């Protein structure tokens, strides 16, 4: 070993927090540390295999991961002959947490230690630190492939805030990790225990995993392979059981939950490829972050190329996890080449279809599981109509909504179900968008629909208004917002009432006075029989921007044109009848302005001048 001076570094503050959380709060299932270290070793070998495509100096004829036990020293050693690390690599990989968002994640967990679950660690690519759950001290000996033997690095730490780095001589490339086990963790010095863990978590890793054995008869040590070392996706589907698919998913994603559903396909023809796609049980914590890492793991002819390749699935399917192994793409493919490659576009079309068909099949075969999926990922899938016009009909079939008839906030009504339940003479699919479910449910626009037993979809997610701009029709039925003018409802509206016929002259005079008071504040003023409990409402013109869309524009800092509504008055309402009889013009004017403000408030959820509205209301209360 080189005798150069040892250098001491401090862990990044996030690493200190993470180590403390893991050692004291995380990983009740401690054996997962071995899965994490084997996974890292496998990645290092994959990276070497990829780099060797373009560099003849980097070759690895017999890639392998070897595990040895030293009972006398109470150590467990995991060794790989992968790409290894340089001095800078080891500082960046083992001294810091580079992934964006980890700092805020740790901050959010600061006061929640008792509720932390094991699966959180893997999500942040910090599996190496799980070594300290079972170890008092960890040594890492590494040499980057292609570097001379005197360029080896020794990293050592007890996980208490500092680590040391020393230059060493290391003849072989790759990384060797030595764990000095805690006294209470000596069970991991048993060969049978290590074999069981590898079989449970790492059987599908494509690299051979070997354990050192001792032949008592011949008094020699030898290496025994303890995993199948065959890429799971290359095997025949009939030979893979459910448990193997689930364990491969956990290895691939570091998720401790089983996937909801998966789809394994091998396609031959113009573009030969294999795909294995999974739908997680739960959404990733950062699924709404701009830097959310998503996409498929890409292999070319079983050679690992890259993680999180986003070129094969659109953003609205970012929750899909899995791999694609292509025989058509070149081995030296890069992200830039992928973006402009016709093969990539063809594969993307096929994978989108397979993903949507997988979800469609789940919705048809297991409604409970599909509802669980929708509750987790429905908001993401709602981005689909705007992003993917080619698959619009298939996406529409997967959408779920709350509805007036179902009378609960759960989004569990499909468009197919809605259409099948439409009443006679109903031509359109009716919906309303609002800021909340309760706001939609209690909207005065629903009064006619309740009376005629016409169901209405209640949309209250922020994305809904945007989505409905791209959903034009379903199974020949057009979508219609009930807060917009629509002549198709005329057939359901009752004929003029006896009251209106008998007092038509009085009503006409009333309307004239209303127009004088409101003037050009609205687009038009008219009577309506679609209301039963509300004196008046405002409607958007069929060709103009809706209220909810205007709110979206405002929230995004975009200019919004002035909205002018159609003011509809329910002449049957007792309040309207009383106002008709008011002879004092000033009081009449105050009432009409109050009614308009009420209608605008019900429609928009706010007023330009709420204080004036309250003052006017109080003034009229005093006069009653």
Describe this structure in words.
The protein has 624 residues and is of the alpha+beta class. The chain folds into 4 domains: 7-225, Histidine kinase-like ATPase, C-terminal domain (Heat Shock Protein 90), CATH 3.30.565.10; 232-367, Ribosomal Protein S5, domain 2 (2-Layer Sandwich); 400-492, Rossmann fold, CATH 3.40.50.11260; 498-623, Heat shock protein 90, C-terminal domain (Four Helix Bundle (Hemerythrin (Met), subunit A), Up-down Bundle), CATH 1.20.120.790. It is 35% helix and 19% strand. Strands 1-6-5-4-7-3-2-8-9 form a 9-stranded mixed β-sheet, with helices on one face. Strands 10-11-14-12-13 form a 5-stranded mixed β-sheet, sandwiched between helices. Strands 15-17-16-19-18 form a 5-stranded mixed β-sheet. A hairpin with a 5-residue loop joins strand 10 and strand 11 (273-279). Helix 8 crosses helix 9. The chain starts with 6 loop residues before the first strand and ends with a helix. The model is unreliable at 98-102 and 111-125 (pLDDT under 50).
């Amino acid at each position: 070993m080189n005798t150069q001076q040892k250098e001491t570094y401090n862990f990044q503050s996030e690493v200190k927090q993470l180590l403390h959380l893991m050692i004291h709060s995380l990983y009740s299932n401690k054996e997962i540390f071995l899965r994490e270290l084997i996974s890292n070793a496998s990645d290092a070998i994959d990276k070497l295999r990829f780099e060797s495509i373009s560099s003849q100096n980097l070759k690895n004829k017999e890639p392998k991961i070897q595990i040895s036990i030293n009972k006398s020293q109470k150590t467990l050693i995991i060794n790989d002959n992968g790409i290894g690390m340089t001095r800078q690599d080891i500082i960046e990989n083992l001294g810091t947490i580079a992934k964006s968002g980890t700092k805020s994640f740790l901050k959010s967990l600061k006061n929640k230690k008792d509720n932390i679950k094991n699966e959180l660690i893997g999500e942040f690519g910090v599996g190496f630190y799980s070594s300290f759950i079972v170890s008092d001290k960890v040594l890492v000996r590494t040499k980057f492939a292609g570097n001379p033997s005197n360029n080896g690095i020794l990293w050592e730490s007890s996980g208490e805030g500092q680590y040391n780095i020393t230059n060493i001589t290391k003849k072989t490339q790759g990384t060797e990790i030595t764990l000095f086990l805690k006294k209470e963790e000596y069970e991991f010095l048993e060969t049978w225990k290590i074999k069981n863990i590898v079989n449970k978590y790492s059987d599908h890793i494509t690299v051979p995993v070997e354990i050192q054995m001792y032949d008592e008869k011949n008094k020699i040590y030898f290496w025994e392979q303890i995993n199948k070392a065959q890429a799971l996706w290359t095997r025949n589907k009939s030979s893979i059981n459910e448990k193997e698919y689930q364990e491969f998913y956990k290895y691939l994603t570091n998720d401790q939950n089983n996937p909801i559903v998966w789809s394994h396909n091998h396609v031959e023809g113009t573009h030969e490829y294999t795909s294995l796609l999974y739908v997680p049980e739960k959404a990733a914590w950062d699924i709404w972050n701009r830097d959310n890492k998503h996409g498929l793991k890409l292999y070319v002819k079983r050679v690992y190329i890259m993680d999180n390749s986003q070129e094969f699935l659109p953003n609205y399917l970012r929750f899909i996890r899995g791999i694609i192994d292509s025989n058509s793409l070149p081995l030296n493919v890069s992200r830039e080449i992928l973006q402009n490659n016709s093969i990539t576009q063809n594969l993307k079309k096929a994978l989108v279809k397979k993903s949507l068909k997988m979800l469609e099949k789940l919705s048809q075969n297991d409604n409970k599981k599909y509802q669980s999926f929708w509750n987790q990922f429905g908001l993401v899938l709602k981005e689909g109509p705007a992003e993917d016009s080619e698959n619009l009909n298939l996406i529409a079939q997967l959408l779920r909504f709350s509805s007036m008839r179902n009378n609960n906030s759960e989004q569990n009504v499909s468009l197919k179900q809605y259409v099948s339940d439409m009443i006679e003479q109903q031509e359109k699919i009716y919906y309303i968008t609002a800021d909340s479910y309760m706001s939609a449910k209690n909207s005065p626009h629903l009064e006619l629909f309740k009376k005629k037993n016409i169901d209405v979809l209640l949309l209250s997610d922020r994305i809904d208004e945007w989505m409905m701009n791209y959903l034009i029709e379903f199974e020949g039925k057009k979508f219609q917002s009930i807060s917009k003018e629509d002549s198709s409802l005329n057939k359901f509206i009752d004929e003029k009432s006896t009251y209106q016929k008998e007092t038509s002259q009085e009503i006409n005079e009333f309307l004239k006075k209303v127009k004088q008071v409101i003037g050009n504040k609205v687009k038009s003023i008219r009577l309506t029989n679609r209301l039963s409990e509300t004196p008046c409402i405002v409607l958007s013109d069929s060709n103009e921007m809706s209220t909810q869309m205007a709110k979206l524009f405002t929230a995004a800092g975009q200019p919004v044109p002035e909205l002018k509504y159609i003011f509809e008055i329910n002449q049957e309402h007792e309040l309207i009848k009383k106002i008709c009889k008011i002879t004092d013009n000033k009081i009449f004017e105050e009432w009409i302005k109050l009614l308009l403000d009420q209608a605008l408030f019900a429609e928009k959820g706010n007023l330009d001048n709420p204080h004036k509205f309250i003052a006017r209301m109080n003034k009229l209360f005093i006069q009653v």
